[in-house]
Amino acid sequence: MIETEQLTRRYGNLTAVDALTIRAEPGQVLGLLGPNGAGKTTAMRMIAGFLEPSSGTARVCGHDVRKEPLQAKRALGYLPEGAPSYGELTVREFLTFIIRIRGLRHDAGYRRFEEVVARLQLESVLDQCIDTLSKGLRRRVGLAQAILHNPPVLMLDEPTDGLDPNQKHTVRQLIDAMARERTILISTHLLEEVHALCNRVVIIANGRLLADATPAELEARSRYHGAVSFSAPGSGVSQEMLGRLPQVASIEVDPLDGRITVFPRAGERILEPVETLLRQQGLEVSEIQLERGRLDEVFRNITTSAEGRA
Amino acid sequence: MSPVAAVVRRELRSYFVTPVAYVFLVIFLVLAGILTFYAGDFYQRGQADLQPFFVMHPWLYLVLVPAVSMRMWAEEAKGGTLELLLSLPLTLAQAMLGKFFAAWLFIGLALLLTFPIWITVNYLGSPDNGVILASYVGSWLMAGAFLAIGACLSAVTQSQVVAFVLTVVVCFLLILVGQPQVLEFFQGALPRRLVNAVAHLSMLRHFEAISRGVLDLRDLVYFLLSMASWLTAGVLVLDLKRTP
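Output (structure tokens, whole complex):
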């Protein structure tokens, strides 16, 4: 479990993290979301014990990072931003160093090493210098380092940043597989990641907490939540007809591909009425979709309105 | 394994997989040889001792020790591995000690590799090997004090060049402070007791005392205390950097 309590860090006049209180439970993948410079990394660095908070505190599995830093660090696996590691060492040497410094016993450490290497598919590069590895592999070495001691809490700072789509997919699968029984906190500014990984999201900007909700709840805040969109190429769909449906609030047409989006009035469900209408009119519809809501729009609304206030 | 030992092993590993170790060892041994035989008139003196060898050590260390110590923290801060290291379960003091011991052992190895010169002098005559042993110990202690200064100043900055220059300057001052010219300068301005105190800060003075073959407790304490204080200062610097 990770808890922060009024966690604050100031640099001179700038408040990088401002009284942040969040909580991540076992079994949860909590996404820390925010624009660049929102304070995600600073918050994580304080939880990891790399930076000292100006005020407030954080607890990892009940261990206060200010009062019991070593216990907190033992319970935590941490992948810092950019997955730093000692590039002149080989993967094997680097991971051995982590095993030693974490005080794992020889046989237990060795078993864990084998497990982790197999899980992250690092067998083929074990004796290569980390400096010579690709970005994706280096990220995997960083992940291996973070999970070697089988920590109950895992904290990953932008684990997929700068990776290609295939590498992103691999890393996400790994995180997904580790999610059970663990508490995982990941920071990201990629919204696709929220869908792929998180079951709870915290949005911060300018160091302040702006939203704490499930991805579905966030989507429900979107203008697009419950809207119906479809493409009807080559047919003049009568917007007027659609507009006359009592449940419909407004209609938009994408100027580029002609896709039509129909927005419902508050609390109304419009998929069926729209479908019925289209069928009655005998219109060819190539594909019709009920929108869940658009996270990017919600994210933009939440974070930009906060900037306006600041 | 204790975290200190883990850091020592990692550091030593890093020395030897990069050219740092080999470049240092070669230059140290070549310079030590040249200075002893040419500048130190090893043969012309006609005495079977290693005095011309050891007298050059402070000056050798002045350039070479900062070259070893400069990367200690500056490189970690620059490369981002400092964040990784400090999120591992070890204290700042343990990390500092691990790095320091690794560097000190490494310089110890460089010193051991000068053994041919010891063999040479034993082949040519019959020197007092007790004095030679004491000199080696003194030299290693002095190297440790220089390293501790370098470790502290490397924590101050992200730039290895800055760390190098700062360390050279501080070490140079600590060598010079006991020289008669410097003391004369102070004599007018300071009371005699204070001048004496300043003279006692001199590395050279304590090293020379040990090289005469007398392992005086005061000289040992001087070096051990120097190391402890500079390393503690280094830990404080690191801690200060993480507090707001």
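DSSP finds 14 helices and no strands in chain B.
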